Amino acid sequence: MDSGQYSLNVRFCEICAGFLSKSGKESVPSLTRALDTIASDLARDGDLRIRVGSENPSIWPSLQQLWNFLADYPSADADVAELRTLVISVARFTRNIVAGVAVNQQNAFGVEPALRRVLHLYSSWSAFQVTDSFPATRMAVQALSNIVTTSEDLTSRLWNTYLTLPEEQAILIRLLGSPDHKTVLSLLVLMVNCIHDSAERCSLLTKSRGGARICITLLDRVVLLYDAEESTDGAKAFDYGYHLFAHLFDGGFAPDLYNSLSVEGEVIAQHQTTLLKLLDSYLQSSQTCPSAITRAINPTNSELMDGSIEHLQELDLLLPKACEALVLTTQCIVKISLLSEDKRTVDIRAIFRDASSTDGQGTAEKLLRLLDVFLPRIYFGKAVIDPAVGRSMPSSVAGSNGFSYLKRDLVRLVGVLCHRDKTFQDHIRVCGGIPVIMNMCVVDERNPYLREHAILALRNLLDGNKENQDEVNSIQPSGYWDEAGILHEKVGATLR
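and the corresponding structure tokens:
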């Protein structure tokens, strides 16, 4: 046994024993100096970490006593300078001694309950008002992360415990509310490590009540971090938050999470919309179409596209939210369909082609027809008058931002699904979708490039389909515009 190493273990145990026997403010500096010196050596030398953790006298009982002392600190308050200093030094020592050493992680896991109590103190509202407490919180989170990282058993034990804690003790939720971006970043590193390559832990996060509450809090935080300046801690925290949800999408857990975020009585909840935005971003950046992606979108959208715009009699306050979600949903479906076609894998488009509403009509075609009646075309800033009713739609409807891009994306979806598919081309014709698509070949300021997407969709509908070509040829202009800009019905025209 190395005598120098033996003296280091002895020194640590003696310093801890001396501090715990005095527990006075005057003994804090000597303890923190000693711990910081040892922690610096441990950070530089992996072999030293192994030897300190395994040799006698054992450091683990003394370390446990230190954490118990911190958890039971007589005047526990985040604004107590002595406590902050002690937490930083003890947490730094713990973080460094366990880094990459499995045996040390097992020995140190016993301090987790006391460490959790310390984190509970430093994740309170009053602690968040004391900026000097942020380094202590951050160091404690990093210590916790190092204790379980790379250990499957410890990670599962920690994850199962933290996702089943009572609401008032939910440490992950409390820490996600920290105003310190570095703390949030450290926490997200821990969370991503916990769910990495573990379907069981991903399932617990997406299906359990505690997991749903964590995801709701995280989605709120991701929204707030979205505008963080590049290369800042806030931007890095956003990237890790997105990375966490990407892990869930990779595993096909989007449907479970989407359902867990639902709110009774609402067509679409705010957090479901945020999740769809992340899923859309994930799909748009994807270059492959694994089977998990199909599971990630299929259950999500059938219900949404079936029931959100069934009766468009007047503007409903919920409709803009539903339409925003429909735009995201449609973009996801289009991307998945294009990926499956480009990679020549299983034709995922069939999943969406076969989708139908409760009355047997195709969901996309029905929505197009309803929207063509409900929303006017916007041409150079003015709503086009509907000749069927002789008036323009209300300005409150015409100006609803929630409806932007919906026609365009639905037309694009129809064009993608009918590409080189005779059955779907015929289906569009039978349900009266061709005139609807033709009516979309116009300029609409609310739907940029609507005309171009409609022309492409019409081209795909007619490609190799004689019946559809005859259908288009049979349609004649129903009216004409005179020099005064008044629309007149044309005698003998085909009305559709």
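(Above: one complete record from the training split.) Residues 296-315, 386-400 have pLDDT under 50 and may be disordered.
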